[in-house]
Amino acid sequence: MGIVVQKFGGTSVANAERLMNVARIVTDKYKEGNSMVVVVSAQGDTTDDLIDKAMEINPHPSKREMDMLLSTGEQISISLLAMAIEKLGFPVISLTGWQAGFLTNSAHSQARIRNVHKERIEKELDQRKIVIVAGFQGVNRYDDITTLGRGGSDTSAVALAAVLRADLCQIYTDVDGVYTADPRKVPNARKLKEITFDEMLELATLGAQVLNNRSVEMAKKYNVNLEVLSSLEKKPGTVVKEVAKVEKMLIKGVAKDCNVARISVMGVPDVPGVAYKIFASLSSKNIDIDIILQSIGRDNTKDISFTVSSSNKDAAMEVCEVFKDTMGAMDVLCDDNVAKVSVVGAGMQSHPGVAASMFGALAEANINIRMISTSEIKISVLIDKNKSDEAVRAIHDAFIH
Q: Quick check: 166 pLDDT over 80?
């Protein structure tokens, strides 16, 4: 018997029936003698509904006030789940992120956890209470509420598992594990029994929405015993661990990300330090860059293209327009009708020919590649957005039979 951290996503707590289902999952584990810490997200579409409410009032609200608003979604979930557990006759207490000791930096809407003061949670666990914690939120050093960004509840759960040295961290979702592709789009996708932290991190970063990438990063750093499973079906999930048993699988997954925009700075002067100036300016605005492509210089100029998330495209365009005016580039173009499709697998380190098979599958499906990026365990391509589902199926069929 030990400490178990369980996290439930928005669909798992979407209504009264599902909340009671979650309450039973939690209390069943508690009855086994475990100390239970439960992290929950906002119910169903609550976060999106709150964003819509904000936009009705002010299309450009400050990030601080958005954090104040969005944090209420999780507070509704924790109190309702606590009530459900009370109804079943078990001792329980709900805590907001700041009551649970989450201290973050001040980057509103995408805050990073600096520390978790676990004393309050440990005090409640010592009294054999089930502790329900609001995911996705914390407080900065000025006592302002902060949120951790989309998928932040996963990160909250893993952080608690790390500081409490939990024996197990279970992430409950509406799917029953990690699949080789989205089973809703690829009917022959296979569920993985286990996957390495590195592979899961790549898949999460590349658009697989099962786990938040920051949570996987943290789980790897603190070697958290992590499992992804369904709150709706009683069946084993996928274990995420440092070393997975070698299955006869070259590729562990195919992921797509449609939240992408390609920005091209055309006719940049072909002199040393130009790329540094562009990317240093983007970095100073906290804009993450993914795939980068630089053309061969011509007429003493070159073109630099890169991808950013769709949410950062306007900010990136502003930076590049300023760069164009100061450095004398010819034009700045933005295309958000693109998607990134990727294959991930540690097996490709020792198997040449993965890129050829991937590109061959896309060629056969008559899908054009616009940009390519590779690492030791992944290959990503940028393609037309309207071809993304077709591309995932074609690549999946090429590798996973």
A: yes
Q: How far is CA 342 from CA 48, 181, 279, 291, in A?
A: 28, 10, 24, 12
CB 37 within 8 A of CB 164: yes
Rounded Cα gap, residues 248 and 385, in angstroms? 31
Report residue 95 as tokens.
């805590």
The alpha-helical segments, DSSP class H, found in 6-90 are 16-31, 46-57, 63-87
Beta bridge pairs of residue 338? 260, 384
Q: Alpha-carbon distance 249 to 350, whole Å?
A: 12
C-alpha separations of 277 from 269, 326, 331 in Å: 12, 11, 16
Percent of the chain past pLDDT 90, that is, above it, reads 75
CA distance 303 to 305: 7
Quick: pLDDT tens for 254-279.
Answer: 999 999 999 999 999 888 898 999 99
Q: For the purposes of burial, counting CB atoms within 10 Å of the CB of 262, is it exposed (0-12), middle (13-18) or buried (19 or more)?
A: buried
Tell how strand 35-40 and strand 130-134 pair up. Answer: parallel
